[in-house]
Amino acid sequence: MPTELPYAADAEESLSYDELEVLRLQYQKELAQSHVTVQTKFNYAWGLVKSPQREHQVEGVRLLQEIYRAEPGRRRECLYYLALGHYKMGNYEEARRFNALLLDKEPSNLQAQSLATLIDKRVTQEGYIGMAIVGGVAALSTLALAAIIRRASRK
Q: What is the torsional sign of CA 29, 30, 32, 33?
């Protein structure tokens, strides 16, 4: 029995410019008519979250949060993409929070399980990078202090 979870492919795959443009034009058309359907808003938010551009991801998360607040029946649908959007923006605690909410509702959701693994790996990786930076700064500070002490003792 395979132990690998299905990869949260949305974490790295984005829509083409043309595909996102179709969603954007539909959203803007409905916005101009003062009636944006929840599905159109969700589709556009989904496309924005998948984008590699941070400003798109921020806008996608904002739209998903609007849907999450206004449409209780669509909350479960929004949770994964809210988690994904926050993950892609580097907001790992928010990503964990939304993903945990989804896993509470759907413990066997393999995509959410996979995303949880990606979030944990990224947090660990950034923790190691942070420790290396702190260690490097401490080493440089120690060397600088030693040089200052050496100069002072020569006088």
A: positive
